[in-house]
Design goal:
Layout: E1 3-6, E2 9-12, E3 17-23, E4 32-38, E5 45-50, E6 57-59, E7 67-72, E8 77-82, E9 91-98, E10 111-112, E11 116-121
Length: 122
């Protein structure tokens, strides 16, 4: 599956952005979807994941209550709504897909989008 992420940009602290990730395959609903991010000089880290049906979501602690992951299987798209952004949220954000179980591990995901850059100014 090919993934195309979009929606990044420059925003002031406290602002919001909505990231989107469109998938190319009809079987989108058979993939667990995740969002990861990588800040300069740091390793790629888990942000959020959503189950195939959208009924289960998990988040890293630092974004709980601020970010919301969702998906629309009819549009083959997963979203990441980011509110109350902080400077530490600055990173390149990647969407990813895996054909198995919900996971926070980078290594568990089989397919990756190209990344979209988010910069939060303080």
């Amino acid at each position: 599956v090919q993934l195309q992420a979009s929606g990044g940009g420059l925003v002031q602290a406290g602002g919001s952005l909505r990231l989107s990730c469109a998938a190319s395959r009809r079987a989108f609903s058979t993939y667990v979807m995740g969002w990861f991010r990588q800040a300069p000089g740091k390793e790629r880290e888990f942000v959020a994941a959503i189950s195939m049906s959208g009924g289960t979501t998990v988040y890293t602690d630092s974004v709980k209550g601020r970010f919301t992951i969702s998906r629309d299987n009819t549009k083959k798209t997963v979203y990441l709504q980011m509110n109350s952004l902080k400077s530490e949220d600055t990173a390149v954000y990647y969407c990813a897909a895996n054909e198995g179980l919900m996971s926070r591990s980078v290594n568990r995901y089989d397919y990756w989008g190209q990344g979209t850059e988010v910069t939060v100014s303080s």
